[in-house]
Specification:
By secondary structure, this protein is of the alpha+beta class. Helix content is 40%, strand content 17%. The protein contains 17 helices and eleven strands. It has helices spanning 22-25, 33-47, 65-71, 80-92, 147-152, 156-168, 190-196, 205-211, 219-225, 234-252, 287-292, 299-310, 318-327, 332-342, 351-360, 371-379, 400-407; strands at 17-21, 52-53, 59-64, 94-99, 106-111, 113-119, 122-127, 142-146, 183-189, 256-264, 269-278. It has a four-stranded antiparallel sheet. Strands 9-11-10 form a three-stranded antiparallel sheet. A two-stranded antiparallel ribbon has the order 1-8. Helix 8 runs antiparallel to helix 9.
Length: 409
């Protein structure tokens, strides 16, 4: 756990990703932009193991005001007055579900944050021990987000909408590869969307009453019951929320979003929103970060991930691919560099031996035309193989499929 005496660790978060449970992303509550950013920072710290556990098993994560100020590029000054409402909101929030029709009625609600304290310039969050599975070490149902991107948002609805759309932009199992694109169509009921991004506060008693203890909550009725009437008409919601949020998302992220209203019924009333999410410009230099964040992946999953996503090692047997991956310690860039060099060679007698030797020697003396390379090739007298590797052309590949495959299984 960081304390007021520990050195400031700002740079480690500069290019970091963190994962967030889709359960938390889809939770309905109203929150400030500062609260969302602090939550993102705390998740990044927790997933870097920068926390402690107290005697009650709570996850205790601390950050100094100076650290927060630098990470968020905030003006100098006291965070005291800004952090107090954040602490109040955090400690009053619960997540859970209810099902009155199951086994005579079932419900389960959890307080996410037990305690939030600010003292001597240090803000400390005590996460309930029961939410550990929603904070780190995910096996499924999570979304990978970039901390620098999330900290750039200036509008809370931009922040929440980006999280929500990111959590929905993935391929469900069973979709053939040939049908996959980088464009997603995502529909939301209008009232549910307002609850999801916090335009309507789901924690107000009148709204909560409509949402809880219902197998299928009526979101329209829940919004109607809200005593707070904010951006009540479609025109207000579109102009003041969606237009502003999508403009910021399109300007500050690698996601390009457009939307259109869904209309129906008498008077063609707007009942929903369809978003078109285009990820074709997603950063292609994030492969190592993705693989590093995939600690829960087995070696077989990483092997498939490396090969399928970029068509590397095409033509090698599964056994030989595994040898090459093990030699590189499943380091994607090492394999890619060696493979690109391999594709420049002609008449390699033992492709697997060539790749392993290249990795062993850190690519030294393996450029095309090297005399030592020729000596090495002639000395490789391994088992004969069907040589399907001659005259390869170096290819350019689509990095985006890689990320999408990992983000959602």
């Amino acid at each position: 756990m960081c304390s007021k005496d520990c050195p400031q660790q700002i740079e480690p978060y500069k290019d970091d990703r963190y994962s967030k449970s889709n359960y938390l992303i889809s939770a309905k509550y109203s929150s400030s932009l500062l609260e969302n950013k602090i939550t993102a920072i705390s998740l990044a710290k927790i997933q870097k193991k920068e926390y402690t556990e107290d005697k009650n098993g709570r996850i205790v994560c601390s950050m100094t005001a100076n650290e927060l100020r630098k990470l968020m590029n905030a003006n100098a000054g006291s965070f005291y007055s800004q952090l107090e409402p954040v602490a109040i909101n955090m400690t009053s929030r619960t997540i859970g579900f209810s099902d009155p029709g199951k086994n005579g009625g079932v419900f389960d609600y959890i307080s996410v944050v037990d305690r939030a304290r600010y003292e001597d310039g240090v803000f400390t969050i005590f996460y309930n021990s029961d939410v550990k599975d929603y904070l780190s070490d995910f096996k499924a149902n999570f979304t990978i987000l970039e901390l620098p991107t999330m900290l750039k948002f200036k509008n809370v609805y931009s922040f929440r909408l980006y999280e929500l759309l990111s959590s929905k932009s993935y391929y469900r199992k069973g979709i053939p590869k040939k049908l996959k694109t980088q464009v997603f169509r995502i529909e939301f009921n209008l009232s549910e969307l307002k609850l999801n991004i916090g335009v309507v506060n789901a924690e107000l008693d009148a709204v909560r009453k409509e949402l809880n203890n219902k197998q299928a909550p009526n979101f329209d009725k829940a919004v109607e019951k809200s005593p707070e009437k904010k951006f009540n008409t479609w025109y207000e919601f579109k102009r003041c929320v969606l237009d502003v949020a999508i403009k910021e998302i399109n300007e500050k992220t690698d996601m390009k979003v457009s939307f259109s209203p869904l209309k129906g019924g008498r008077g063609a009333k707007v009942y929903g929103v369809e978003f078109i999410v285009d990820l074709t410009e997603r950063n292609v230099e994030t492969i190592e970060d993705i693989l590093k964040s995939a600690d829960e992946m087995s070696e077989d999953d990483k092997l498939d991930f490396i090969v399928d996503a970029k068509m590397l090692l095409n033509g090698f047997s599964t056994k030989d691919v595994r040898k090459i991956c093990e030699k590189s310690e499943y380091n994607y860039r090492k394999i890619e560099t060696a493979y690109n060099l391999f594709c420049q060679q002609k008449n390699v007698l033992n492709p697997t031996g060539w790749m392993i030797s290249c990795l062993n020697d850190a690519y030294d003396n393996f450029q095309t035309g090297s005399e030592e390379k020729k000596v090495r090739e002639s000395s490789m007298k391994a088992k004969s193989t069907n040589n399907n590797f001659s005259n390869f052309h170096q290819r350019e590949y689509d990095y985006d499929q890689l990320e999408l495959k990992l983000l959602k299984q």
